[in-house]
Specification:
heterotrimer, A alpha/beta, B mainly alpha, C mainly alpha, A: 19 helices, C: mainly alpha, MetI-like fold, 13 helices, about 75% helix, membrane (chain C), BPD_transp_1_N (chain C), ABC transporter permease (chain C), transmembrane (chain C)
């Protein structure tokens, strides 16, 4: 049905021509579900844009063939391509809210497509658009017809995007990271729905994702891309259990999944034994009845309601939950950037909640409680070099100056594996993994006892995530720190933490030792979260 | 993309000072328009500094025997109705026009930045009050407000500067407020607090410098507006008074002779005015690139 | 719909504190006069007696708050004081001259929107082309142009050199009679009267000052249109629309342009501020009998009541225009007044 041979795509930039896709070939059969997996910059999205011929103005297909049902997609006239798009081949995108026209009613946006492809007339367009909304299981479709995208949730927006894509009964559906930015349970709902519709209508599909787990769950065949080339392809089971190419192997290893240790995320040759971390009996931080209430426009908003837990010295506690569950508010209060409405924060018996967050900067305990931020790019001052960023807490909170300061910064860089010559670079001159290292080096500069890790790897590719997680595990053993690891990824929490807390709607719904909570979940919400996470069917024999 | 930059960048940089100087030179070379605009600005600066001592004629000296002469070798820009040399007057006027615009922009930059930064960082009632006051200033057509202020405070150069500064304050305050506001909860702001910085330090040393690049573009636009504004005010008879050489007044005086064909009286001061505004507008991108470390490679 | 209605009501209510602020500032301006305000308001020819009369009528011998109360009372009665030079009430003179200014301003704005918006759209759809270069040149040069200077150059070229423009003196050559007063807009009044000769006469007078103002406003509008169009064209929803096979015309106008219009409409507020200010200069150059040249004449003779009346009425006009712009915005943006905006 779709056959691609030696496809090459290049972009004109100020630095000359850059190849994004360098000669890839694959076939897609009728009714087949293909997954294209790769890390950022692998050219996976560009491939799909090239097929639809919707590349940006500076991009072009340089060479190769792409044939869809006998139509040459490269040479077809623009008019013919237009007929093809939406009617034969449809596409859905990441960030569904942005993918919809913000000032047009969603019903009208569906009608636009129906009218364009002569699937509806002025008279029956409305009725057909409502039918399309019903097809993607939007409740109360009649009323939703008149909604604007900003009035709908993210998951709902993605359903509308699906409705637009499916309105004209296409034969092929291309999904470009369709669930990025959606919560894990919403992700599952959307993927299940699309999969069901695609299968029921006998369509083919291409799923483009960075998530091996997602691809293996929803695809019949997987193509792995790296630097614009296909390195390997095959059935998910086979590809994952016996990867042939070293890159696939690395990718498979780095994907967090059940039953593997944190070291096993690394390539085999880099797996040095991990020193055990010691968990003492003495509590480091006791959180008692912590509550945070904001004054919203329509009454008080309870971000965090009366939560209590204890973190012992050397212990790593995972805090999981979906967006809006209060985990970020909790971590902001624990790190003393935010004042709780009520409750106690007993740090070695001393109630930190008594000290206003605004004055905590001058408190000697400031250096003992530190944080690694979610987005390494956002958390580094764009005007400061790595050296300045790492030195900042030392300058403010210690007496180190001059050569001693420089020596300490260099020591921290070497501890976190940051090459010394990168110390004089600005954040925009560093890669994501290097920025993460700078962030970690800065956080441990004052030798804290307690480190809050706020989704520290969420913005990283899996292979870099694997390295960062291992670095954190090494540091914990070496420096004896306690961690509060905030994450939405249960598989990662399972590997790094001793204890786990599950939050929902500002409350703790489940808590306990990792093995107990995750292996035999008793709470229905925990079970729902665990089931929604894509399962990677990898036999652990590889380890 | 990031990896490409990393690969190309040179390892280890020399001392910070020379790095900055190198960066400025790099910005000037990289974009010919920026280089040109800075050269033009240097020209304006030179005429402002030493103009009065190098011009061929006394800008105020009248000569009844040589009135309304078209441009010639003796009088490059011709002479006006009193026989004064237009070229000398145009060059000498540079200092006054530059002083007015730079002083006005500096005042509004300082006051606008402080007010905007506090409002953006603190939020709450301070923010509300400031926004209301700015709204009120912006509720006037700005040139008209400047007219009203100069008319009320009195007709002097200082009052022109104050009026121009007042009408420009909202631009800076709003810009800084917005820039501070989006960074108030940014990761690096929180990180700076965790590093033991007080709120004042965080605001002044971590957040505010990051607002500088867009502000530089604003400064360059405002320098242009300020000159136009001052010239416009003197064109309608406010502020600078004849016979002081000033571009706006010279255009106003020359305007009366346009309909009888003596074009040089108005054309040259007008062109110089345009050139100055044009220079400032072109400088914007260059100034931004100089203060923005992200442009460094 | 209910939420939007509330938001619109709220926006109208927001104009009230701004109006109050405008009145306070213009009040302070009248009291900030150096020396004795009563003497200033009474004018140069005033006698002791008339100065005292002004002092009592303005309440200058009373505390500032009382003076403000008196000022508010006068405003409520539509009393902006007497012009010293003509002896007429300021409000009447402003009212009779306002249509001339509005006609010029609106003519110029329509002219510049008609050129700038298509230019910006074309430049954005063909980045790097000659249209784009032309747009960039116009945008950079346009903001550097002193309006009064452009006006003078246009007069020199089209009146003195080419002789195709009428003499730059007012709204209508003296050989024509003013059209019967209906709206005060000569083009409309002449058309209503069916007097096409006068209509063309008025248009001829309007073209050069209109062009001067339009050149000035072209730059910000074209710049914003281009930028907004570029960002709309690279937005995700445009990609969705293209991927769904929508016709280019539909994508460009139905999706990109409508969204790009939002920031352009917002910019119009700033443009009005510029254009109302530039109006004063252009009216002086072309001896246009609007409120701007009235204010300039008043400045020359230190007629303070007239100048401050002019400042206040311009501000009120501008507040009104901004309100209209925001209400227009609320019509095209469904997010108006919600947290999504």
């Amino acid at each position: 049905m779709l056959s691609i041979k030696d496809l090459q795509v290049a972009f004109r930039t100020r630095k000359g021509e850059v190849s994004a896709v360098r000669g890839i070939s694959f076939e897609l059969a009728r009714g087949e579900r293909l997954g294209i997996v790769g890390e950022s910059g692998s050219g996976k999205s560009v491939t799909s844009y090239a097929l639809m011929r919707i590349l940006d103005a500076n991009g072009r297909i340089k060479a190769g063939d792409a044939v869809y049902s006998g139509i040459d997609l490269r040479k077809a006239a623009e008019r013919d391509m237009r007929d093809l798009r939406g009617r034969e081949i449809s596409m859905i995108f990441q960030n569904p809210r942005a993918a919809l026209n913000p000032i047009r009613k969603v019903g009208h946006q569906i009608e636009d497509v129906l009218r364009q492809h002569a699937r509806a007339t002025r008279q029956d367009a409305r009725q057909k658009a409502i039918a399309a909304l019903e097809a993607v299981k939007i409740r109360d479709a009649e009323a939703r017809y008149d909604a604007y995208p900003f009035e709908l949730s993210g998951g709902m927006c993605q359903r509308v995007v699906c409705a637009i894509a499916l309105a004209c009964d296409p034969k092929l559906m291309i999904m470009d990271e369709p669930t990025t930015g959606l919560d894990i349970t919403t992700q599952k709902a959307v993927m299940d729905l699309v999969d069901e519709l695609v299968t029921a209508r006998g369509m083919s599909s291409i799923l483009i994702t960075h998530d091996l787990g997602l691809a293996s769950e929803y695809c019949d065949r997987i193509v792995v891309m790296k630097d614009g080339q296909i390195v390997e392809e095959g059935a998910p089971q086979l590809l994952l259990s016996a990867p042939q190419h070293p890159y696939t192997r690395k990718l498979v290893d780095a994907t967090p999944r059940r039953g593997v240790t944190i070291r096993e995320l690394l390539p085999q040759e880099e797996r040095r034994p991990l020193a055990p971390h010691v968990v003492a009996e003495t509590p480091l931080l006791e959180v008692r009845n912590l509550t945070k209430t904001y004054q919203g426009k329509s009454g008080p908003v309870h971000a965090v309601r009366d939560i209590s837990f204890t973190i012992r010295e050397g212990q790593s506690v995972g805090l999981v939950g979906e967006s809006g569950c209060g985990k970020s508010t909790t971590s902001a209060m624990l790190v003393r950037l935010l004042d709780p409405t009520s409750g106690q924060l007993l740090y070695r018996g001393e109630d930190l909640a008594q000290m206003p967050a605004a004055d905590f900067a001058r408190n000697p305990l400031r250096g003992k409680i530190q944080m690694v931020f979610q987005d390494a790019t956002d958390s580094l001052n764009p005007r400061h070099t790595s050296r300045q960023s790492i030195a900042e807490p030392l300058k403010r909170m210690t007496d180190l100056r001059g050569a001693a300061l420089a020596a300490r910064v260099e020591e921290l860089a070497s501890v976190t594996g940051l090459p010394e010559h990168l110390l004089d670079r600005f954040p925009h001159q560093l890669s994501g993994g290097q920025k993460a290292r700078v962030g970690i080096a800065r956080a441990i500069a004052t030798e804290p006892d307690f480190l809050i890790l706020d989704e520290p790897t969420a913005a990283l590719d899996v292979s870099i995530q694997a390295v960062a997680l291992n670095l954190l595990a090494d540091l914990r053993a070496r420096l004896g720190m306690s961690y509060l690891f905030v994450s939405h990824d249960l598989n990662v929490v399972r590997m790094l933490c001793d204890h786990v807390i599950v939050m929902k709607g500002g409350e703790i719904v489940d808590a306990g030792p990792v093995e107990q909570v995750m292996d035999s979940p008793s709470h229905p919400y925990t079970r729902e979260l665990l089931e929604a996470a894509p399962q990677v069917p990898i036999p652990t024999a590889a380890a | 993309m990031t990896d490409v930059t990393v690969e190309n960048a040179t390892p280890a940089r020399a001392k910070k000072g020379s790095g900055t100087l190198r960066h400025i030179l790099w910005v000037l070379r990289e974009n010919p328009v920026t280089g040109l605009s800075f050269a033009m600005f240097a020209g304006l600066l030179i005429s402002a500094l030493i103009g009065p001592s190098i011009v061929p004629y006394d800008p105020l000296a009248t000569d009844a025997s040589a009135t309304l002469q078209p441009p010639s070798a003796a009088h490059w820009f011709g002479t006006d109705n009193l026989g004064r040399d237009v070229f000398s007057r145009v060059i000498v006027a540079t200092r006054l026009d530059l002083v007015i615009s730079v002083a006005a922009v500096a005042l509004s930059f300082v006051f606008g930045s402080v007010l905007g930064a506090i409002a953006g960082y603190r939020g709450g009632w301070i923010d509300t009050v400031l926004s209301r006051v700015l709204d009120t200033i912006m509720a006037f057509p700005l040139f008209v407000l400047a007219m009203g202020i100069v008319a009320a405070l009195g007709n002097s150069v200082a009052n022109i500067i104050y009026a121009t500064a007042i009408i420009n304050i909202p631009f800076y305050a709003r810009l800084v407020r917005a820039e501070v506001n989006i960074r108030r909860d940014a990761g690096f702001t929180q990180a700076a607090k965790l590093a033991g910085n007080s709120d004042t330090r965080v605001l002044a040393l971590h957040i505010f410098p990051n607002a500088l690049p867009p502000m530089m573009v604003q400064v360059s636009l405002n320098l242009g507006w300020a000159i136009l504004n001052a010239a416009g005010l003197s064109f309608i008879g406010l502020g600078v008074r004849p016979p002081t050489p000033e571009w706006g007044i010279m255009v106003a005086e020359g305007a009366n002779y346009i309909v009888s064909g003596e074009w040089w009286l108005a054309l040259f001061p007008g062109l110089w005015l345009m050139l100055a505004v044009f220079t400032f507008n072109l400088m914007g991108d260059g100034l931004r690139d100089i203060v923005d470390p992200r442009r460094r490679s | 719909m209910g939420a939007r209605g509330t938001a619109i009501g709220l926006r109208i209510a927001q104009a009230i504190p701004v109006l109050f602020g405008v009145i306070v500032i213009s009040f302070l301006l009248t009291r900030a006069l150096p020396g004795d305000p009563a003497a200033q308001f009474a004018g140069a020819m005033a006698t002791e007696e008339s100065i005292e009369q002004v002092r009592t009528s303005l309440g200058l011998d009373k505390p500032l708050v009382t003076q403000f109360g008196l000022y508010l009372g006068q405003l409520a009665r539509g009393d902006l004081g007497q012009s010293v030079s003509t002896g007429q009430p300021v409000i009447e003179e402003l009212a009779s001259r306002l249509p001339a200014s509005l006609e010029l301003t609106l003519f110029a704005l329509i002219l510049s929107c008609a050129v700038a918006i298509p230019l910006g759209v074309l430049a954005a759809t063909r980045p790097g082309s000659w249209v784009d270069q032309l747009c960039r040149l116009l945008v950079t040069a346009g903001v550097s142009l002193p309006t009064f200077f452009t006006g003078i150059v246009l007069v020199y070229v089209f009146y003195y050199l080419l002789g195709i423009a009428p003499s730059p003196l007012g709204r209508l050559d003296f050989i024509y009679l003013d059209p019967p007063h209906v709206t005060g807009f000569f083009l409309i009044d002449a058309a209503l009267a069916g007097d096409w000769e006068t209509w063309f006469g008025a248009l001829k007078q309007l073209i050069l000052p209109g062009l001067t103002l339009a050149l000035f406003t072209l730059a910000p509008i074209a710049r914003m249109t281009r930028a907004a169009m570029l960002s709309a064209l690279s937005a995700d929803y445009v990609r969705t629309a293209r991927a769904a096979g929508l016709a280019p015309r539909k994508v460009l106008y139905g999706y990109a342009f409508r969204n790009a219009l939002l920031p352009v409409v917002t910019t119009l507020g700033m443009v009005f501020s510029f254009v109302l200010g530039a109006n004063v200069l252009v009216e002086k150059v072309f001896a246009w009998p609007g409120i701007g040249s009235y204010a300039v004449e008043a400045l020359v003779v230190s007629d303070y009541a007239a100048v401050q009346g002019f400042v206040l009425s311009m501000a009120l006009l501008f507040v009104l225009l901004n309100l209209i712009i925001d209400l227009a915005y609320s019509v095209i943006d469904p997010r108006f007044g919600t947290s999504a905006k």
